[in-house]
Amino acid sequence: MMETLEEAELCFPQLNNSCKKRTRPHSESMIIYTLLPSFSLLTVSLNLLVIISISHFRQLHTSTNLLLLSLAVSDFFVGLLVVPFQILLLEPCWLLGDLACILCSFLPFISVPATAVNMVLISVDRYVAVCDPLRYGTKITPKRVQICVLLCWTYSVFYNFLFLFDNLKQPGKYNSCYGECVISVNGAVDLVLRFIIPTTSIIILYTRVFVVAVSQARSMRSHIAAVKLQRSKTVTVKKSELKAARTLGVVVAVFLMCYCPYYGISLAGYDLMMGSSINIFMFFLVILNSCLNPVIYAFFYPWFRKTVKLIVTLEILQPHSRQANVL
């Protein structure tokens, strides 16, 4: 009876080197199989609305919105691919083989570094718009933004390939038993390339934007009523750019709050075990970030609320709906 019970706890009872099945508390199981799939569905749905909105309506085809579109695509894939594959990796036993283990780690997580790079691009866009508004139109052109977005995704694919190259050379090299999926990663490289460099860039750029925004707000308050027409127009443009900077500043702040805890633990020298309670919570924060971005747009961007209404009511299927006034 004891032998049967021990065999039942193994992933592959017929193999001597089989892993033992991991047991997890009921609360963790509820999070993994109920909460994470629910957030995954919500993340996919909300970001799909952002993608359709910016892609469909011509008024939204701007350089800044193209960066938001790229961010929405990366968040969309976080919900569509990262969550299901992560749930698969959290199963008590890995039954799909060593190569599938690597592919399940490689394919979904292309979108994770893309999110960080997109945030850097958004920060650069707002920095130029607020700190050098007169040359914004010549510096930040749609073609340049498209090239930057393409480079962003190319970097993400290359980064993941480089990140997992050692595992691809010999799949299953780091498994200690059958039924295990272990990926070896260079934590220091990941910390520097995916967190320290992007986060430092974002903070420096937005600190500069904040300083300029405060300075301009003070000058506008002290601005006398009798000004030249051209100067008045310039102030109006600056106000709109400052409003966009504040909105995207909230997006950046939420990104930092959701990603900092995971890398903070890494900086403190602690190792996160796959499937541990802390690891699951940190992963939940990443999903939460991808889900919150469209919610922020809904609060701060009137055009997003208008486009969602047009999408939900299927008015976008009408002829000439691309030319609708949503601003």
Summary tags:
cell membrane; mainly alpha; single chain; 327 residues; Rhopdopsin 7-helix transmembrane proteins
Spans where pLDDT lies below 50 across 5 or more residues: 1-7, 228-237
Strand count: 0
- Rg computed from alpha carbons, rounded to a whole number of angstroms: 24 Å
**How many separate helices?**
11
The major beta sheet can be summarized as: none
Quote the distance from N terminus to C terminus.
71 Å
GO molecular function: trace-amine receptor activity
InterPro entries: GPCR_Rhodpsn (IPR000276), GPCR_Rhodpsn_7TM (IPR017452), TAAR (IPR050569)
Organism: Anabas testudineus
Pfam families: 7tm_1
Overall description:
29% of the residues are buried. The protein is mainly alpha-helical and 327 residues long. The protein has 11 helices and no strands. The N terminus is likely disordered. It has one domain: Rhodopsin 7-helix transmembrane proteins (Rhopdopsin 7-helix transmembrane proteins, Up-down Bundle), CATH 1.20.1070.10. Helix 9 packs antiparallel against helix 10. InterPro entries: GPCR_Rhodpsn (IPR000276), GPCR_Rhodpsn_7TM (IPR017452), TAAR (IPR050569). It is a multi-pass membrane protein. This is G-protein coupled receptors family 1 profile domain-containing protein. It is found in: Cell membrane.
